[in-house]
Amino acid sequence: MNHHSELIRVAVFGSTGSIGIQTLDVIRQYPERFKITVLTAYENADLLIRQAKEFEPDLVVIGREEKYHQVKDALINIETIVAAGVKALEHAAEMGVYDIMIAAIVGYAGLRPTMKAVEKGKKIGLANKETLVVAGELITRMAKISGSEILPVDSEHSAIFQCLEGEKLNNIEKLILTASGGPFRGKKKYDLERIGPADALKHPNWDMGAKVTIDSASLMNKGLEMIEAKWLFDVRPDQIEAVVHPQSIIHSMVQFEDGCIKAQMGVPDMRLPIQYALSYPERLAGKLPRFDFDCSSQLSFEKIDTDTFPNFLLAKDALYRGGNIPCVLNAANEVAVAAFLLQNVGFLQMSDVIGHTMSVMPFMEQLSLDDYIECDQEARQIAASLVKKRTVINI
Ligand SMILES: NC(=O)C1=CN([C@@H]2O[C@H](COP(=O)(O)OP(=O)(O)OC[C@H]3O[C@@H](n4cnc5c(N)ncnc54)[C@H](OP(=O)(O)O)[C@@H]3O)[C@@H](O)[C@H]2O)C=CC1
Ligand SMILES: CC(=O)[C@@H](O)[C@H](O)COP(=O)(O)O
Ligand SMILES: [Mn+2]
Fold first, then answer.
1. Could you give the CA distance from residue 94 to residue 114 in angstroms, rounded to a whole number?
2. Model confidence over 363-374: pLDDT tens digits?
3. Is pTM, for the whole model, over 0.95?
4. Is any atom of ligand 2 closer than 6 Å to the C-beta of 182?
5. CATH class for domain 8-153?
6. Which atom of ligand 1 is nearest to the CA of 113?
7. Where in the chain do CATH 1.10.1740.10 domains reside?
């Protein structure tokens, strides 16, 4: 049992999402250790209000400005300050009222608040992988200057981070990310011609938000995670591999230059990597579920089927090309996933939209924040025009 006199003040950006809710679950278990001081949501005012009444943070921010009065009126009897709007999210990230941000906003929307926190030298538990995919070079450079510590929450990266404890980074031969293979593992392209959002939203091992679940089904998630790994662990693209491991018990591995492979294992439960980021460098004793060797007969591995899941190759191409290409990939993917969820494009067409957008955007090497913003917008426009026209482009 650890005895701490000072409570760690936690800001949960995206508290109403899957990671946000699980972060609050962890914090509920350790009231002597953590105190929630900031909660943010986008649309879900009802849940944000319930969370604020329970945790009484210093500040809540609702992204949608039109929901300000609903939240403000509901919290009239507690001392929590209520703010609204996208700029308020950024201001909240800059405030001195928290020690660690759990960055759990989904997608590109998480970039600016996270960047503000990095600029301020905050400690960050990073779930929002898109931030590093889009602007990993800028974010990691900023973090070095400000002293911001970025701790991975994404399960694979948390696994790698744990495998690297006590190791020298220059002894790494390669990082091996595990992929569940998603709900369509073993399927071929013709099997996927008619599948819809309901099929793709059935992840075999994890219960997550819609966007990352679709990315898992298309294997884009693993590609995004390779880019995320490059920035988190400062390795070359050729040092990052991915392998299908359908049971999601080994969360990832590191192979060192003597040939030794270290793996981190556990049941698929995001509360563990969330808790580890919050408590690092300590581990907290607790009751999270344990892996049962009596019930689990095998751990297996397969090659990724890149013919069926070309999104993985598109992301790998972006990893190797660098510059603005991962930003383009991410923007086009966000447009494609949103269109797929609305049934405006088919599952396989998502790769056409992303591949075409990547092929027409000019390459840029070094980007400022404004360059990234412009690049993101331009790529979104191109991708959206393909979606609207329901264009099928063979890549
Ligand atoms: N879920 C998981 O198990 C894992 C998730 N991740 C990553 O973590 C991040 C969060 O994922 P997940 O929790 O599944 O996502 P969810 O969709 O469940 O939650 C997203 C959160 O972001 C908020 N949000 C959405 N859009 C905006 C916006 N434009 N501006 C500000 N806030 C916004 C939502 O608010 P509201 O609901 O109020 O609209 C919600 O709080 C993603 O980057 C994902 O890839 C990584 C590993 C595992
Ligand atoms: C839980 C987590 O970290 C997700 O990113 C998960 O990895 C998705 O599973 P896939 O391996 O299917 O992409
Ligand atoms: Mn992951």
1. 9
2. 999 999 999 999
3. yes
4. yes
5. alpha beta
6. 31
7. 322-395
